[in-house]
Amino acid sequence: MSASLSRPRVGVWLVGARGSVATTVVTGCAAVTAGLHPPTGMVTEHPSFTGSGLPALSDLVFGGHDTLDCPLPKRAETLTAGGVLPPGVATAVGAELAAADREIRPGGPTSGDTRTEAELIVAFADDIRDFVHRNELARAVVVNVASTEPASQGPDAPLPASTLYALAALRAGCPYVNFTPSEGMHHTAAASEAERSGLPYAGRDGKTGQTLLRAVLGPMFAQRALTVRAWSGTNLLGGGDGAALADPAAAAAKNAGKERVLADTLGTVPEGEVHIDDVPALGDWKTAWDHIAFDGFLGTRMVLQTIWQGCDSALAAPLVLDLARLTARAHEAGVSGPLTDLGFFFKDPVGDGPAALGEQYAALVAFGERLRAPSSTARPPGDAAPGERS
Description:
It contains twelve helices and eleven strands. It is α/β, with parallel strands linked by helices. The protein has two domains: 271 residues, NAD(P)-binding Rossmann-like Domain (Rossmann fold), CATH 3.40.50.720; 102 residues, Dihydrodipicolinate Reductase, domain 2 (2-Layer Sandwich). Belongs to the myo-inositol 1-phosphate synthase family.
């Protein structure tokens, strides 16, 4: 993907860079840029964001960290065989996949890794800075799309990998987006440093399927004054997410965001739980089923059931591109701290924004309008863009 010499290029550093979501992000960006497919699912391609100063897809440069060594072109072949990517696309953008793969560095911590947490953070930050400098990028956004981690076990437990990467992003002078339920910037060890950095950050846990529906249906019940008695759900999924969420601690972290949406939109948490079942045969496809019991006029008891069947990678990838573009532009415009107006994309968003999807979308569009203002050249003390550092 070649960019015009008159436009600065922007880096997208993906944590979990050889996973299904990251591979779909890189493949999709190249395919849309080449005109092979329309930007279906990309919110930032809506006319509401015209003139917001977002970086063009052709100006995005990809790299990242991963503990896997399967090259991106090979990973794309696997996703094509599984029906995630359309036939022929991975071959058509093979050069772009190979270029991104050359920018992927070993992640961690891995089994037998003797480096301390401080050493890992320094190594990760150095990788990001090197990526920015070698590619002469104006800035880079770090996006976590790795598998879900169990919640940390207290202040004396080792820092989760997601938090190590979040701290590395801050040290490298880069905005950070957490698309996963993992702690990342939410950990106390990172929260204070994020505040001091003056960098923008967003997250957490991308809202792609079941919770997207909940963010629509919850407000509907509340606005129609219908009493929800119980709300139960089941998720069937395979792939890396299915395997990771087979761990009860990881599943609990995932379900917390789903419950928050109901609590915030209904004002209470109804009876019922969400179950997550690992079904390896499903691969990157998932089925989400919800059973909602509610009372109508004169106590008449009724039920609404929904079934959502989709491909998680294809649902997530356009949102990752949206978030990278919006966060990069926010950084360019001098916005700092939690990007509350990006709550539209997340189950458990940072800040105190609205929970209903319609209100979140209105806040997002208003944010896009604010980004149309001329870029601010002022930055908080010590917050130079990564491309400006020696």
